[in-house]
Amino acid sequence: MLKLAITGKGGVGKTTLSSLLARLYAAEGNTVLAIDANPDANLGTALGIPAEELSHITPIAQMEELVQERTGGKPGTIGGFFKLNPRVDDIPQRFSVAKNGIKLIVMGTVKKGGSGCMCPESALLRSLLNHLLLRRSEMVILDMDAGVEHLGRGTAESVDAFITVVEPGRRSIETAKAVKRLAQDIGIKKCYVVGNKISNEADRHFVVDNLPDFELLGFISYNPKITEADREGLSPFDADPQVVSEVKAIKEKLDALS
Ligand SMILES: Nc1ncnc2c1ncn2[C@@H]1O[C@H](COP(=O)(O)OP(=O)(O)OP(=O)(O)O)[C@@H](O)[C@H]1O
Ligand SMILES: [Mg+2]
Fold first, then answer.
1. Which ligand is nearest to the CA of 167?
2. Domains of the chain by start residue, with CATH
3. What share of the chain is helix, strand, coil (3-state, %, to 5)?
4. Residue 145 confidence (pLDDT)
5. Are the CB atoms for 148 and 179 separated by under 8 Å?
6. Cα–Cα dist 189/180, whole Å
7. Confidence at residue 117, expressed as pLDDT on a 0 to 100 scale
8. Distances from the Cα of 121 to the Cαs of 106, 116, 223, 246, in angstroms?
């Protein structure tokens, strides 16, 4: 079962792609675990989970009692004694919502104190991610930001591939290169790219020409129906068959490479 991490510059379409891949794999009968590791968590909406159901989710890092119970440390504090490998195996079952064959876990944010913050919340999140990637047999799709700080070396090794989303613009290309360097540093072997918001041939060329060292999985067209779905709180998967077929092609290439 593939474990994928989706990264890229802000706003390029990470959540859009994560949700589409999750829905496609789930539609094939796979059990998919979708992990939202963004401070502004919105993967649930993109997966098509109604707002009412999402309102019952508390991000793991914000569950103070759970953090304290498991780590023995007080959330929001740095230093002091707490467990670095707290128990997490029951968390996926207890704190996920399920819809359309997908289980969603929202990680939440750890307020940063100092560099390389090791606080009870981050110990719990790291331990949980480690468990989800190493110990469980489901397909995992991790909607991340552009960094790799969620992943320690040992955890990163069990990610099968980083998929960096780029749009036809210089900044997202630079981010893709930076992410690849970071990913390689922590032992990730496969770094793929998906070009999103593509309007024409020139956009396609821009991506291909500027990322010669990347394996390209495919393109997603600029599509007003995706934006519209986002505004209405709907899943892009249910918005337009064209985007679904474009992401299907991306998925097939990914399956062929893995
Ligand atoms: N191919 C596309 N065509 C048109 N709009 C798109 C396309 N892909 C994404 N969008 C829109 O662009 C915006 C950003 O997309 P999305 O939320 O998926 O990006 P993100 O990388 O997850 O952003 P963030 O960094 O904030 O998490 C959304 O409004 C989304 O609907
Ligand atoms: Mg996002």
1. 1
2. 3-257 (3.40.50.300)
3. 45, 15, 40
4. 84
5. yes
6. 9
7. 63
8. 13, 13, 38, 38
pTM of the model: 0.95
Predicted pLDDT of residue 42: 95
Distance 13 CA to ligand 2 centre (A): 7
Task: State which ligand 1 atom lies nearest to the alpha carbon of 8.
Answer: 21
Amino acid 203: pLDDT: 98
Q: How far apart are CA 58 and CA 21, in angstroms?
A: 24
Distance separating alpha carbons of residues 148 and 143, to the nearest angstrom: 12
Give which of 237, 186, 197, 210 is closest to 32, Cα–Cα.
Answer: 237
Q: What is the pLDDT of residues 132-167, one digit of tens each?
A: 998 888 999 999 988 776 776 777 888 999 999 999
Q: Which of 145, 227, 238, 246 has most ligand 1 atoms within 8 Å of its beta carbon, as the pocket-test mutant?
A: 227
**Which residues of the chain fall short of a pLDDT of 70?**
111-117, 149, 152
